[in-house]
Write a structure and sequence with these properties.
About 60% of the residues lie in helices and about 10% in strands. It is α+β, with helices and mostly antiparallel strands. It folds into five domains: about 80 residues, no CATH class; about 170 residues, Orthogonal Bundle (Transferase(Phosphotransferase), domain 1); about 40 residues; about 130 residues, no CATH class; about 60 residues, no CATH class. α15 runs antiparallel to α16 and α16 packs across α17. It comes from Formivibrio citricus. It is an enzyme of class 2 (transferase).
């Protein structure tokens, strides 16, 4: 099966003339001439951008999603490619409405005429995994009905199998393969993609994001109608708004684009650092804007989640970058385990400074984060930085946010917009507010532990306390990274107790 899928990919590449991209540097060389002779039957009068889009659509949902991400990176693409790939965001060819109706009725066990007061057969949007129809509930509320594409699972399984094989080859034969951990990255992609194929996961994601931003003046999340949902069908509150990519319409409505771009950055950092739960598919096709300047989020199939440890080290790294404290960037990477423990912080700091320093104090229009990432990749190769699979979605989302910010306000200073928010967040994590929050969080646990504390102390002193204290000290040191500064203080006291006992013994 994998061989046939690989064969199909090669056939599509040849049919649509994508070798024009692969061998662009040899356009006047012998290889280009040889390809022209071998494939003389091709008719490549269609513009290259349209051929690329049609090839990605032919290859299926994984490749369409790749094109969606590329479409947001106008700093890395020519104008014709960026404009054409943008059509992948919501204009993938739809499947027949009759098929959608059959799937809805089979999944919800009722005729569409009984489920909805009205149902529009013409889809309002068609994407790589599903398409959306407008409908009205019996009580008159307008809704969006999302229906999975039929037969999509076998195609995705085939593509994922091929990606796993390719990842294995990269890991085995590439010098960077083990450090990049491609198989783990593919496994993460596999998980999120399968979650996207179960629309009940998307329903839960939408509900969580809606709770997180309840009452927000910056972001609106539609309501989920669970009585009409299943694994194949999702019914959401209908949202009216202007696609965020239609800049002229936004201006005509009087939307403040500069403020809108700043709000987008703040929404991103709020999701990441306040909630540890973020929308990870933020391409322009999934975002609308109200005339009042509020964002409307759509399509919740892919979300990311971060642990407290991830959030802490990310915030430290961001703030260190903003303050140009490259030594702190280096030590944070070492403390988090992202680079080998024997790495010299001064050398890593010098390498990061070389990459990042030229890009500061410039507006977003003059900064290519794609170029920064490529340069940082060169640094990571030198210092054996391990790619963190749990952060892959975050990196992708950050690139999407950059692309969105570039379209809304080319002069946006992403660093200065994000820095005050991160400083507030760090103050809440390590200041007196953090102390109060930790006390509230830990109070139930202390209430359960304190009544039994005298008995445990008695058991401890009736035996040799040193091994037990050493074991507890080591355990608390491990937990300190996962919890809070109180555990660090307790582990320090246990360490002191061990030293006192040892000094009395010897």
């Amino acid at each position: 099966m994998r061989f046939f899928r690989l064969f199909k990919i090669l056939r599509v590449v040849i049919f649509y003339g994508l070798d024009e991209f692969l061998f662009v540097r040899q356009q006047n060389g012998g290889l280009r001439c040889l390809l022209g002779i071998l494939f003389f039957w091709r008719r490549l009068a269609t513009p290259r951008a349209e051929r690329l889009r049609r090839a990605l659509e032919t290859l299926g949902p994984i490749f369409v999603k790749f094109g969606q991400v590329l479409s947001t990176r106008r700093d890395l693409l020519s104008q014709d490619l960026a404009d054409e790939l943008a059509r992948l965001q919501d204009r993938v060819p739809p499947f027949p409405a009759e098929t959608a109706v059959r799937m809805i009725e089979a999944s919800l066990k009722q005729p569409v005429s009984q489920l909805f007061a009205s149902f529009e057969c013409e889809p309002v949007a068609s994407a790589s995994v599903a398409q959306v129809h407008a409908a009205t509930l019996p009580d008159g509320r307008k809704v969006a009905v999302k229906v999975l594409r039929p037969g999509i699972l076998p195609v995705i399984e085939s593509d994922l199998a091929l990606l796993r094989t390719l990842a294995g080859w990269v890991e085995k034969f590439s010098a960077d393969g083990r450090r990049l951990r491609p198989r783990e990255v593919v496994a993460e992609f596999d998980k999120y993609l399968h979650d996207e194929l179960d629309l009940m996961f998307e329903a839960g994601n939408a509900s969580q994001l809606r709770r997180n931003f309840a009452g927000s003046e910056q972001l609106i999340v539609p309501e989920v109608f669970y009585d009409y949902c299943s694994r194949e069908v999702l019914v959401l509150e209908w949202m009216d708004g202007i696609p965020v990519s239609q800049i002229d319409r936004l201006r005509a409505e009087g939307v403040d684009l500069k403020q809108l771009s700043k709000n987008g950055v703040e929404i991103f950092f709020t999701q990441v650092f306040r909630d540890g739960f973020f929308h990870a598919d933020m391409h322009p096709g999934n975002i609308l804007v109200t005339p009042q300047g509020q964002y409307i989020a759509l399509d919740f199939g892919i979300v990311g989640a971060l642990s407290d440890v991830d959030k802490r080290y990310l915030a430290i790294n961001f703030l260190a970058f903003f303050n140009r404290d490259y030594l702190r960037v280096a030590t944070a990477h070492i403390e988090s385990g992202w680079v080998p423990a024997d790495t010299r912080p001064e050398e890593l700091a010098s390498a990061v400074r070389t990459v990042c320093e030229p890009f500061f104090n410039k507006p977003l229009a003059q900064i290519s984060f794609g170029l920064v990432l490529m340069r940082l990749f060169e640094v990571s190769r030198r210092f054996n930085v391990e790619i963190q699979p749990q952060l892959v979605l975050l990196q992708k989302t950050l690139l999407n946010i950059e692309g969105l910010g570039r379209q809304l306000d080319p002069e946006l200073d992403l660093w200065q917009t994000a820095k005050p928010y991160l400083e507030r967040w760090m103050n809440e994590q390590v200041g007196w507010r953090a102390l109060l929050n930790n006390l509230r969080t830990e109070a139930p646990q202390w209430a359960a532990l304190l009544p039994g504390l005298p008995r445990r102390i008695n058991e401890l002193v009736s035996h040799d306390p040193v091994p037990l204290l050493l074991k507890g000290y080591a355990g608390l040191l491990r937990e300190q990274k996962k919890r809070n500064l109180w555990l660090g203080a307790i582990s320090g006291m246990l360490g002191a107790a061990v030293l006192i006992l040892l000094s009395q013994r010897f």
